[in-house]
Amino acid sequence: MRTLLFILFTFVIFTAIAQEQTPKDVIKFKDGSEYRGKITEYVADQRIIIEVAGNSITVDGEDFANIKDIGFDKLGYKNKSRGLWHEMNLGVTVGKSNDFSTAEAHPSILVINGFQFNRFLGVGLGTGYQVHNQLNIIPVYASFRGDVLDSRVTPFYYLDAGYGFGVKKGDNVYFNNEVDVKGGFLVSPGAGVRIKLKKTYLTTSVGYKLQNSQVKRSNNFYDWRFPADFASPMGEGDSSTEKRLYKRVEIRIGIGL
Q: With a threshold of 0.90, does the pTM exceed it?
């Protein structure tokens, strides 16, 4: 199932890339006009020179501020420094974090909706579903992020912070346990690369996730399947609580608008 999800997500990404292809460089303005030709010079936030039918046209000043979209190298990108954005990520966490965890990779899916104030700061609200060893997490968090460069391919940084609600994965089949799980605060800083297209963008990133959780077990080590002389370290009705801090590397690939 995990393999199928990654194959499907990869197919969506490559389909988005194919649909973004355009035969010429293009500069589109907010008033609906456009230039199509060959961009020969591009200075971020300042000036663009484009060759149109043998004529060299310079776009700067107020004209540059009125640009809506820029397309070049057969892949355009949306010059979106302010406005709403939406993003979906598939992720996987790796690495052994403590005595309760294993080194097995665990998948996650995350959805974020936010507002970009400028190139360096966007704020969003995210949720999703994350798999852990003995419990799963439904996170609700704020996401802060920004781009380093104003270009089609740019490094970006992010910081996710919020709360993860615990979801029980099932009672212990060998010890007649009642299990109560709780989540906790989460924080995940990271960085990656964003590829801006005409209508969408693609991301790949690496972060470090910290997730608090708690597992409480009642009636531990009491079951009729054990011999009568089995010495149980805990009596019937007793309970134990395990507090855990998951610390794992998280790798994500995403697509957004």
A: no
